[in-house]
Request: fold
Amino acid sequence: MTPRRLRHCTECGTAVDYRVPADDNRERAVCPACGHVQYQNPLNVVGTLPLAEDGRVLLCRRAIEPRRGLWTLPAGFMELGETVEAGALRETSEEAGARVELLGLMAMIDVLHVGQVHFFYRARLLDLDFAPGEESLEVRLFHWDELPWDELAFRTVRLTLEHQRAGTPGVLTAALS
Amino acid sequence: MTPRRLRHCTECGTAVDYRVPADDNRERAVCPACGHVQYQNPLNVVGTLPLAEDGRVLLCRRAIEPRRGLWTLPAGFMELGETVEAGALRETSEEAGARVELLGLMAMIDVLHVGQVHFFYRARLLDLDFAPGEESLEVRLFHWDELPWDELAFRTVRLTLEHQRAGTPGVLTAALS
Ligand SMILES: [Zn+2]
Ligand SMILES: [Zn+2]
Reply:
């Protein structure tokens, strides 16, 4: 699912054409009435890999589609007016009710087919008073030898967990087609 | 200039309202006719800091607004279907006609007032056959003691150049309000 094609001009409501504008080199949604060009660009999904003092990792079981019932790291779309780091903290709070300290970016993964870039920060849980938010059925800590590898919601979550388990230094960068 | 508010529904063309949808916690453009919610999120600007073998840095003098006539690093909006790295290479080619090898991410800067995140990669020029693209008036190499610090186009370009000059290891992260 690439981002949906736009059908109407956001400025005047006229049905748009997809064509290459004169000063451009790729197709855009162009309004035949007012000339407005509406761009579509990749979006950032930001989240954390929260770790307890004993090394366990926090995962959320999704209450919403897609992938309802599967396990994920807390993450979601970055919002206007916040930094990448602030977005990661907000999503951790909203989805897991968890307070964390960010320890640094650990993964930046291009997800080409959906037009997204996923950012995960390694994070330290400040306490164990977490609780599922509206988008989670359940939030719990897993020992690394009991992680639900077969019930993970997203490939970027798997890659980020594998990067942590491997202990490889540096930021994981990867691209998923 | 925060990203412009949307006026019409991209699905059906009806004038939208800005309000908080039932399952949400912030204002969105909501269509009163078809119910479509149009999200607006931060966009990524991706570019490079290209270095010649002798240590000189490549800058482009902008041919377009904003900041026409001022100097910048090659950078622009990331496009659908490309990775962050591919976007940085493309912009370096389009704006400076330059071929580079990426040496790693060196700066990731939130620019809150425009809803952007700027990514710069340190890069090695593969040859000196660069030439201005349509968005540049001029492309040239600068020794570090002759950099046009008073004629830089953007604060993120300044921060990235300062980070390189300082020689500080690691990725610069910063937020501009
Ligand atoms: Zn229009
Ligand atoms: Zn509508």
